[in-house]
Design a protein that fits this description.
The structure is a single chain. It is built from 8 helices and 7 strands; from the N terminus they run E-E-H-E-H-H-E-H-H-E-H-H-E-H-E. By secondary structure, it is of the alpha/beta class. It has one domain: Rossmann fold (3-Layer(aba) Sandwich), CATH 3.40.50.300. A 5-stranded parallel beta sheet has the order 3-4-2-5-6, with helices on both faces. The protein has a two-stranded antiparallel ribbon with strand order 1-7. It is globular, with a radius of gyration of 21 Å. It starts with a strand and ends in a 21-residue tail after the last strand.
Amino acid sequence: MKKYILKRGVLIAIEGIDGAGKTTMVRRLYDQFSRIHYKVSSFKEPTDGKYGQKIKKLAQDGRDNISVEEEMQLFLLDRKEDCEKNIKPALDRNEIVLMDRYYFSSVAYQGARGLDKSIILRENEKIAVKPDIVIILDCAVKIGLTRIRYQRGEVPNHFEKEEHLEEARKIFLKMEAPYIQRIDSSRPEEQVFEHINHIITGILIPFSKEISDQPDLFSLDINNDESIYYKN
């Protein structure tokens, strides 16, 4: 099996409404690229940090006591911490970095609450690393909610209300940029994965270098490494 390393880090964001299949795809991509010896890290937002915990509490308890502006600030603080502690160091180590949600979700979800989408994007791009590729997984809201209820066995939280998800999906569908690819995630899981894998493999090729299983004979320092000699 061929093995590869990256010449520089590559940041890949997997986006979409709740129930679109982001976490499943990130897990499968992590396994796929780890098997061929790429260094891979995956991170999920909101994080488990102090700001991420506050966001998760809002999802469970409700958002009645917080303005949309305050909510956006929590996401910005959580993302800034994630970039500084996790994302940037992994990219500096020349890793593939897989994001299970990133700032495009803030544009969609806070935009669905009425904030100016261009302001959300601008504020996030002040503190966040711009991704090399964004994969938006798209499916009907009813499909996403069905997956949450019956595949995860969960009750939809306060961020997963049907009307709110419909508005967030509309915003995701309007996102257009050279680095954005949209995939129909209502299809069977294997088809969705193969499509994503094909796209990302194409992105990685220019930044990849094949490595050999065999040591380079002429890279050994025979003057300083006595371990290379056989001893009787």
